[in-house]
């Protein structure tokens, strides 16, 4: 019997270069490339992508041990000055399904290589999807976030 709720994903690409380990800040200085799987894709898969300035990249935090996944509240970055926040009220890597989503600058497209800056994923990261960032998919209307989140992100990019 097939589980109709099962989700199976196959990476479309891999991050090459950039950082070899994740640490929290200064991602905007990091350049890397996303290399599409040549067994499944041709450069045509990226046709027109170079007309966009930014991408949204979905990836897996492959270095997180599944046993380290968090499902409840914790102090972000272990900082007791910040309030407890549930795993779905933060963007930490130790999350269910170990999925990350990042917006980054598109630098160039060259064959099956997508050169980016500011992608907060490390060398070897499996990329599950690449999407062009379109302003219309951004928030409609004003946005809000707590002060701790603004403080946490102050030096992230």
TrEMBL record:
Q: Which GO terms describe its molecular function?
A: methyltransferase activity
Any Pfam family hit: TrmO_N
State the Gene Ontology BP annotations: methylation
Domain (TsaA-like): residue spans on this chain: 9-142
Q: Which residues form a coiled coil?
A: none
| Transferase found in the keyword field | yes
The record, for InterPro entries, names: TrmO-like_N, YaeB-like, YaeB-like_sf, YaeB_N_sf
> What CDD domains does the record tag this protein with?
UPF0066
PROSITE patterns named in the record? TSAA_2
What are the UniProt keywords, alphabetically? Methyltransferase, S-adenosyl-L-methionine, Transferase
Q: Which family does the similarity line name?
A: Belongs to the tRNA methyltransferase O family.
Name listed for the protein in its UniProt record: tRNA-Thr(GGU) m(6)t(6)A37 methyltransferase TsaA
The organism's lineage? Answer: Bacteria, Bacillati, Actinomycetota, Actinomycetes, Streptosporangiales
């Amino acid at each position: 019997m097939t589980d109709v709720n099962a989700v199976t994903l196959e990476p479309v690409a891999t991050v090459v270069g950039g950082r070899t380990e994740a640490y929290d800040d200064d991602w905007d200085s990091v350049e890397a490339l996303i290399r599409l799987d040549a067994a499944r894709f041709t450069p045509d898969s990226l046709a027109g992508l170079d007309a966009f300035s930014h991408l949204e990249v979905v990836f897996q935090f492959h270095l997180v041990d599944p046993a380290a996944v968090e499902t409840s509240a914790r102090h972000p970055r272990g900082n007791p000055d910040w309030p407890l926040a549930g795993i779905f009220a933060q963007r930490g890597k130790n999350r269910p399904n170990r999925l990350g989503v990042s917006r980054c600058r598109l630098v160039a497209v060259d064959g099956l290589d997508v050169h980016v800056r500011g992608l907060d994923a490390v060398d070897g990261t499996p990329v599950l999807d690449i999407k062009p960032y379109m302003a219309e998919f951004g928030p409609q209307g004003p946005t809000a976030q707590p002060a701790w989140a603004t403080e946490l992100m102050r030096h992230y990019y």
